[in-house]
Input
Amino acid sequence: MAETRETDEVIAAARDIWRRGQLLIDEAKTLRLAATRAREKSRAVRARMTSEHGLPHWPDLHVRSDQHPVGERRSSSVSGRPLGNQGPHTSGSAHPGPEEPSLTA
Output
């Protein structure tokens, strides 16, 4: 009887850890999306200021190419300017889907 209770507690703890992991994954996706939107807005403002006021167009210096996470790859042109953000990698992700894994043998 004690073994069954201990097994149930271990399964409950594993499910709790899995749920917390899913919350962290969701939060990371939200933060990545917010960062992408902020970069796009910054680029739009910079482009507008350049066209309206003749201000120099500065290169993107906020992230070096070797600091990009996997799936968000950039390649540089001859001038060193990034060609664009390919966006987050969504297909074939390494983490489990939204359904809870079965922990019973």
Remarks:
- Residues 89-93 have pLDDT under 50 and may be disordered.
